[in-house]
Amino acid sequence: MGYERQADFGTPEVVSDQTVTLTIDGRAVAVPAGTTVMRAAAVSGGSIPKLCASDNLQQFGSCRLCLVEIDGMRGTPASCTTPVAEGMAVHTQTARLQKLRKGVMELYISDHPLDCLTCSANNDCELQDQAAAVGLRDVRYGYQGENHLDQPVDTSNPYFDFDPSKCIACSRCVRACDEVQGTFALTIDGRGFASKVSAGLASDNFLGSECVSCGACVQACPTATLQEKAVKEIGKPERAVVTTCAYCGVGCTFRAEMRGEQLVRMVPWKDGKANRGHSCVKGRFAWGYAQHQDRILSPMIRTSIDQPWQEVSWEVALAHTASELKRIAAQYGRLALGGITSSRCTNEETFLVQKLVRAGFGNNNVDTCARVCHSPTGYGLKTTFGTSAGTQDFDSVEDSDVILVIGANPTDGHPVFASRMKRRLRQGAKLIVIDPRRTDLVRSPHVEADYHLPLRPGTNVAVLTAMAHVIVTERLADEAFIRERCDWDEYAHWADFVSDQRHSPEFLEPVTGVPAADVRAAARLYATGGNGAIYYGLGVTEHSQGSSTVMAIANLSMVTGNIGRRGVGVNPLRGQNNVQGACDMGSFPHELSGYRHVSDAAARALFEGEWGVAIDPEPGLRIPNMLDAATDGTFKALYIQGEDILQSDPDTHHVAAGLAAMECVIVHDLFLNETANYAHVFLPGSTFLEKNGTFTNAERRIQPVRKVMEPLNGYEDWQVTQELARAMGLEWTYTHPSEIMDEIARLTPTFAGVSFARLDAEGSLQWPVTADAPDGSPIMHIDGFVRGKGKFVVTDYVPTDERTGPRFPLLLTTGRILSHYNVGAQTRRTANVAWHPEDLLEIHPTDAENRGLKSGDWVRLASRSGETTLRATVTDRVAPGVVYTTFHHPATQANVVTTDFSDWATNCPEYKVTAVQITPSNGPSEWQEDYAAQATQSRRIAPAEAAE
Amino acid sequence: MSSHTPKTTGDKLVYMANQIALNLALDDNPVAATADHIAHFWDPRMKAMIFADDRSRLSPIARDAIAVLARGHEPTSQTRATDPQAHGTDAG
Ligand code: SF4
Ligand code: SF4
Ligand code: SF4
Ligand code: FES
What we know:
The complex is a heterodimer.
Chain A: E1 19-24, E2 27-32, H1 37-43, E3 69-70, E4 89-91, H2 95-110, H3 126-133, E5 160-162, H4 172-181, E6 186-189, E7 196-199, H5 216-220, E8 226-228, H6 229-234, E9 239-244, E10 253-259, E11 262-268, H7 281-285, E12 300-301, E13 310-311, H8 314-332, E14 337-341, H9 347-361, E15 366-368, H10 375-384, E16 402-406, H11 410-413, H12 415-426, E17 430-434, E18 443-444, E19 447-448, E20 451-453, H13 460-473, H14 479-485, H15 488-499, H16 505-512, H17 516-528, E21 532-536, H18 538-541, H19 546-559, E22 569-572, H20 579-584, E23 591-592, E24 596-597, H21 601-611, H22 623-632, E25 637-641, H23 645-648, H24 652-660, E26 664-669, E27 681-684, E28 693-696, E29 701-705, H25 717-727, H26 737-747, H27 756-762, E30 765-766, E31 810-815, E32 840-843, H28 845-850, E33 858-863, E34 867-874, E35 882-886, E36 914-920, H29 926-938
Chain B: H1 9-23, H2 30-41, H3 44-52, H4 60-70
Helix pairs in contact in B: 2-4, 3-4
The complex binds iron/sulfur cluster (3 copies) and FE2/S2 (inorganic) cluster (FES).
């Protein structure tokens, strides 16, 4: 694709079942009723000059450049604010209009520097284009009058500059920040000529303001006023390739805009169905890690982890790895090997890793990082609804009347979806937030939760069962829905259970800490407020009762009939970009792709036929079980693609001991991550910019990932896995990831209709894509649960065994921050550290005062598992008795303190509840210093000669 | 480290089995449900370990479930999470 700006039709699309026909410059045009004249002209191939209008913003009508003449109408109305009418005759190019437009343009240009030739936006500037479009050749007012040309440039944001001298006060940026992003960071100060854009208070610069660096204003700006620094540094892009963000489960699609082999900028793709043209700071700007000097580009091996790494050729590395794996299999048996797939890699890469384990290693010891995040979603939704996935697409939120967010912090974790949710809330939808912390969603500009239930960490099931109690005992259940769609006897049994007095909000208040009246009010609102949608995240799953909580959520949606149409449903917000895909692809040790249990002989036969090997009918080890087996001496070799289990998994000491007990740990990654400190083989990985494949987002949407540059390490990740398989004797001959997808489609009923050709044609597809649903399934369970009846499951509240006591009186819960991603390996290697240079411990003022702490103090955070130190920030976002931190930085290693308690059904670790004590500290702990020293030691790379 | 944090794999397996049994205690048939869950989610060496372990630390439900499995009995699936039929052309 060459370089063209994305089409802009001036005003938003209107959906209407009525069509209006009019003529524009003599052309007959038919558009939906309510469309503006400007959009009607644009969609029919014409164009009307404009400056203040843009099709992702509401009409504004300030610049007066878009004037038109309409037969029978007086004056020259603005086409961006004039709706079409039947039989209307519009003229967009007349001598009178030309004169008026020229006059308008002249005024703008007279206050604009005329350095077009040297401006970084030259040839990519709407002001310049429009000046040409109206035929402006010279300016009568001269430039000596009053102007804004000497205003200083604000360079504080690491990714874009604000040069007020070029601002034409069209307010597109302000409206983008308000309407698209929902942050309300910008204002137009002053009036008339004095008006100028500002980020918050007069003294504020962008970095110090409320701005979250989503880039919406930069994209909206028609001039070079708000512009990416990279465009200034590298130059204007020459081509653009559409691809998918590799950070979070929203799955925003972007145009990777390139100049030669260099990525200039990532611009959200307006046709992207997950993001609809919006982005967050991570996907939009934080891709610099792809070129970071820390990337390892040559394979490396070593015989023991206390030695320095030796760089070797790919041939040597792969032959060595294969021979080690074979040796270990011969010596300890085939069950001593295993693999971990990555939720950051593509579906095709993930599929190959699990295939290598099942077909090559001959066992089912494959797991994925979803173990530590959304495995309870798979279990819980499969048990209740029959499918291991969320029920809606993101667009569905536009029809929600009540939004219940539990254990999720979408403004930080899923920012682009949060912007869409906030837009719906500004339109009047009601909001219930169930979270121990006062997240941003609870109160932010123009959004306020109707109910915030600040429960004690670990009591989700109790709160949800109390809500069910209210719904059933106050007769708010949707009996007609239940009779039609669910098993009535199971419902009756469940209703009996939740109706018991011991599940009432009043009885449970001492346990949950939530006022009973609020629980009752929230339950009534969810049951009776119209379309009710539940969104949840890791605050639901990462508990001893993660699976029970997911089932309790499903129960609530069924009892209120909130399933099977737009605006309702149960929506897990997935953490990493391809968590859904990794789970779909058979990354769990008990399941083949499409969630078929390995004990299912018919499913196995399908794979055995395709792969020509026997599949073990017994489930394999999950990640924590692998580590246990390693310390027991029965598990010896692990191939880890794109994961950093040492930093991301709980109880770091135990993970380290497990890894240290293995004989061959293979890390396939971009960087020498923390896990690589215990590795014997390092295989360099490639970034999402360097490979072809697909990711599947939280709405089951399969989207293409397209290679925009050659892999710096020489190979896409699927090629490396293929070469390793071949070195082990498997005869794999894929020449392109599309062939892997074809195999997935042959073996996985829900993917039957998926191929790269169809994805290229459609942009994306939401599984199931089957003969019955050839274009995919945006909303599930429409006419009935896909597999029989919905199942109500009794979810008893079983408190976690992790309890506070005199030694550990506080509860620690952990989470995410907007600017960083997971273990931070990527985002820490970008300018995003400007917003979050270190992990901080949030502590309530009362708890801080009792300990003599103030913000900025170093504190020691200790649990039964271990201790670390970090700095405190005192805030009433957390309740008394609760502390909170993130785990983006290896120096903190918050997982040193998390325990090995886990979800009863899936072993998903209990990250969200750890009993801790906080005490003042002088600085990093001895353990942190030892760890840093060990990490440095372990990352040594021997000089090249020594490798020969 | 705490007294209650499980240490050995054997301890952990006992803890897990008891936890599963506790969470399935209100099922129609808790012993069958617990046996089914363990059969379908534990790898063979975990099962072998708990079969061989001293069962006195197991709760009554867990103990009965382990006894059922140790006899080589194949439990029928009790939930859709373990039901081989619970898949098809529709979803995963
Ligand atoms: S980058 Fe986003 S948050 Fe910041 S001012 Fe622009 S639109 Fe608002
Ligand atoms: S900064 Fe750009 S978008 Fe904002 S008012 Fe100025 S010219 Fe318009
Ligand atoms: S990190 Fe998530 S929200 Fe941000 S751009 Fe990427 S996919 Fe979108
Ligand atoms: S584009 Fe219509 S008034 Fe500015």
